[in-house]
Every structure is written in structure tokens, then in C-alpha cells.
Design goal:
Order of helices and strands: HEHEEHEEEEHEH
Number of domains: 1
Oligomer: single chain
Strand content: over 45%
Number of strands: 8
Strand order of the largest sheet: 1-2-3-4-5-6-7-8
Radius of gyration: 20 Å
CATH architecture: Beta Barrel
């Protein structure tokens, strides 16, 4: 997914979410605010959450990413559905951009972009009236490495693939009923399919990088999926 398509999708979803939020506000009868519990709260229940933000990646470890790449920037886009109370599943897409700091170890290119697509699940906790603490883990993820800036004119770009294991946590601050800001952290492990001589397998078979991100969250609805069927 390209950056332009992500932005276009975001605009469509934002228009949809604003319309739903307005309809819900008009039709909702005022009620006494219930006290927030740590594990769930009927007052603060949501159905969908749409997240968009930026991130800073950091490579680590004795592997081709830790020794050869330096993180520059990234973008995140997620859509998640609350299945029961604050348990959710979601789909995510994004990209991380890196500069090559050691061409002797990696090859004669200067830039690398990692496109990320994965499904995930997790749970949100409610430590205070305005904060949401979430933990999540990828279920299935694919990465596409695109290497560019080769010193030879006959190679424009090079692609490699990998599987992604991602473990993350985030903290949301509620500015309004359906609008939040967030900060998050993720630990990413990529298991690659890069063809290299056997003596280099250990170095190129796995890449590790962390990321710290900030952004916006837009939510839709006030009941989880199962509650919609039960009530």
C-alpha cells in the first residue's frame, strides 16, 4: 500500500467516523456518568478505532538491521474492532524508512524501506478516566524490504520478503468522546527470506527493530461486537 493510498483511505474513514459520531451524539440520551473500572467500562466502550500516526524506528542486535541500518522515520495506519468489552482484533499497514550505515555489510545501496502489513489482537485497560493502556501482538504479518540508491545504474531497486512478529503497547489520552492522541512502543522481529551464502545465514535470517510512535485515534460506536448481538 502506497502513502497516497493510505492518505486517501484515511480521508474516507474519517468522514465516515465523523458522521457516525454526530449521529450517535444526536440520538444518545444523556445519562449519569458511570465510574470507570480498570478492565472495562460501559460508558467508555467503543466499537471501532482508527489510528494514524508517525514513528521513529531504532535497529538493534547483531544482525543485518542492527549493524547495517539506521532508522529515519515511519508511518502507521490501523483499524481495530472491539470483539468483547476491551478485547480487540485489528489490521495494520505501515512503512519504516532506513539509511544504510554500513554498505560493506549489506551491499551497494543507500536506502531501505520496510512495508508492513499484519493482523493483530490485544486488550485495553482503563487506569484513569482519560487514559487507555493497550497491549497487542501480531497474529500474521508480512514485510517487504525495498532497497534503493544503488551505485550501479543497472539496478533501480531490490526487494526481499520477511515474516513479522510484533509486540506492542500504547497509551491513549482521551481529548473527546471519539478523539484521542496516543504514544506507543513496538518491538519487531523479522524472519527474512534473503538469499545469501550459508556462512551469512545467521546474520541475515533475522532483523530486529524497535519503534516509538505518536498520532491520533478516532473511534466509532459505543458497544462491542458481541454486545450488539446480545442486546
Amino acid at each position: 500500500m502506497t502513502l497516497r493510498s493510505i492518505i486517501n483511505t484515511l480521508i474516507i474513514l474519517l468522514v465516515f467516523s465523523v458522521g457516525n459520531a454526530q449521529d450517535e451524539s444526536i440520538g444518545r440520551v444523556a445519562k449519569t456518568r458511570s465510574s470507570s473500572a480498570f478492565f472495562d467500562s460501559e460508558e467508555r466502550q467503543r466499537f471501532f478505532a482508527i489510528t494514524v500516526g508517525g514513528r521513529k524506528p531504532f535497529t538493534s542486535g547483531d544482525n543485518f538491521m542492527g549493524k547495517g541500518l539506521e532508522g529515519e522515520s515511519g508511518i502507521d495506519f490501523k483499524v481495530q474492532m472491539y470483539i468483547y468489552k476491551n478485547f480487540f482484533i485489528g489490521l495494520a499497514t505501515g512503512a519504516s524508512y532506513f539509511d544504510v550505515k554500513n554498505q560493506e555489510r549489506l551491499g551497494s545501496y543507500r536506502k531501505s524501506r520496510i512495508a508492513e502489513n499484519y493482523a493483530y489482537f490485544g486488550y485495553e485497560f482503563l487506569p484513569t478516566d482519560k487514559l487507555r493502556l493497550g497491549l497487542n501482538m501480531s497474529i500474521d504479518g508480512d514485510l517487504d524490504y525495498k532497497n534503493t540508491g544503488f551505485s550501479t545504474a543497472d539496478i533501480a531497486e531490490q526487494h526481499d520478503s520477511a515474516k513479522l512478529n510484533r509486540y506492542g503497547l500504547y497509551l491513549n489520552y482521551e481529548l473527546a468522546r471519539h478523539f484521542m492522541i496516543y504514544i506507543d512502543y513496538a518491538y519487531n522481529v523479522s524472519k527474512t527470506n534473503i538469499d545469501v551464502p550459508s556462512q551469512l545465514d545467521d546474520f541475515f535470517s533475522k532483523g530486529k527493530y524497535h519503534s516509538i510512535g505518536v498520532g491520533l485515534v478516532f473511534t466509532i460506536g459505543s458497544r462491542d461486537l458481541i454486545s450488539r448481538f446480545l442486546n
